[in-house]
Amino acid sequence: MSVVVSASPQRPEDVVVSVPAATIEDVGTAAGAARAAQPGWAAAPPAERSGALHAAADAVADATAELVDLVVREVGKPITEARGEAARTVALLRYYAQQVYDPTGAVHDPSGGRGLAYTRRRPRGVAGLVTPWNFPLAIPMWKAAPALAFGNAVLLKPAPQATACAVRLAELVTPYLPDGLLTVLPGDAETGRAVVDAGDVVSFTGSAEVGAGVGATAVARGVPVQCEMGGLSPAVVLPDADVESAARQVAYAAFGYAGQKCTATKRVIVVGDPTAFTDALVTAVAALACGDPAAPETVVGPVIDEAARTRVRDAAQSAVAAGARLLTGARTPREAGWFVAPTLLADVPADHLLQRAEVFGPICTLSRVDDVDAALATANDVRYGLAASVFTADLDAALRFADGLAAGQIKVNAPTAGVDFHLPFGGERASSYGPREQGKAAQDFYTALHTVTVAPAGG
To answer: pLDDT per residue over 321-350, tens digit each?
Structure first.
């Protein structure tokens, strides 16, 4: 029997959880239970579904301290960010508990002039959700909460590294739901494929390579699918930017939580003379506290595992060998876990891995360009398009970047990292496939729109 083992990245000898992996047969059984529970849940009055989600939110809120400690322990998220994630998880449940009351369609006059024509939304059935480890509470809930709110059942396959968080979250939420409506299925790729095969609607967050396969499988089955697949997010700094403020925000966006966010800044593009901003950024990075994620001052904790640390170190060494300058990252943290220092490199060749593909960790490049046109071209010259930011005091320039950046999330004088859960989230190009997540867009994805025409009896 295959076993899922999740260990703490700051103390690899600390096994957080070890559980049997869900087999294909287990997924089938869970899917059967979900299909049995879903029609009754969909038919329940909105107040009943809303009440269940509000009660689940209360349970999660009451367990905040426990969940924060678990997030810190299992995925190495700094405690300040872990607290924010726990609060967001509660807010997501409450937000979608209220969306239950949103309109589900519209009334129209039929073309013949008599009778009634209207649209209404119906749940799709069973939602197959595959989630990553870096937001072990929030991402499962920003997928599951709307799916449940709009009358679906849920099969959730969390990343192996976040198994304990997903299991505990389900323990808190499922007492308020019908039996079988939400099931967590720990496992690796085989379990994930089975969940994708079982879903009537599929939502995935993870790497571009895996997401491409998930999307193809769902499309071949004819089921709606959304895939969020990372980015190579740029931050553009114009000559009129507030240098100190921009440097602080870029430093946090690039290296907070060890750069392990799909919206993390990976490329900094400075227009004109980069000296002042480079100095400010190096200073801002040096000020980031690195170490034990349980310490309240820590901003940069460990990466998730040894393989991640190796990828970051290898990428930095390769860039230096190709002619890049190492601005930060020479020191090695003393902690015993999977720690790697925030690494900032200048003059990385345009064709290097760091300029073309996402390396998930605390590593970022800095480049100089001559003008705004070159900045836009450089920012867009990758296959990804998730998040981007521009720092400027010039409204015309800000609007030009807002119109020209090939990204789903565009920030002006704000960090690339960070998401407003009440707004649609998603990217362009290889960063996303399918409809947006979160906000009001969630209803569109987790429901199907039907048109009903009622004519008078007798024609």
So the answer is: 999 999 998 666 666 899 999 999 999 999
Active site residues: 228, 262
pLDDT in tens, 194-248: 999 999 999 999 999 999 999 999 999 999 999 999 899 999 999 999 999 999 9
250: phi > 0 → left, psi -120 to 50 → alpha, else beta; which? Answer: alpha
Q: Which fold has domain 233-412?
A: Aldehyde Dehydrogenase; Chain A, domain 2 (3.40.309)
Share of the chain above pLDDT 70, in %: 98
Tell me if 353 sits within 8 A of 295, measured CB to CB.
Answer: no
In whole angstroms, give the CA distance from residue 244 to residue 143.
37
Output phi, psi for 255, to 5 deg: -125, -10
CATH superfamily for 3-224+435-454 is: Aldehyde Dehydrogenase; Chain A, domain 1 (3.40.605.10)
Tokens of 65: 């301290």
For residue 310, give every residue at least 6 positions away whose Cβ sits within 8 Å of its Cβ, in sequence order, or none. Answer: none
Tokens coding 41: 């849940």
| Per-residue pLDDT tens digits for 58-105 | 999 999 999 999 999 999 999 999 999 999 999 999 999 999 999 999
pLDDT at 333: 64
Q: Distance between CA 417 and CA 250 in Å, rounded?
A: 9
The residues of the chain that CATH labels 3.40.605.10 are 3-224+435-454
Residue identified by tokens 């699918």 is 225
Alpha-carbon distances, residue 145 vs 12, 224, 289, 450 (angstroms)? 32, 17, 34, 22
Contacts of 314 (CB under 8 A, 6+ apart): none
Whether this prediction's pTM lies above 0.90 is answered by: yes
Q: How far is CA 313 from CA 309, 318, 332, in A?
A: 6, 9, 11
CA torsion sign, 291 to 296 to 297 to 303? Answer: positive
CA distance 190 to 178: 27
* Region(s) of the chain under CATH 3.40.309.10: 233-412
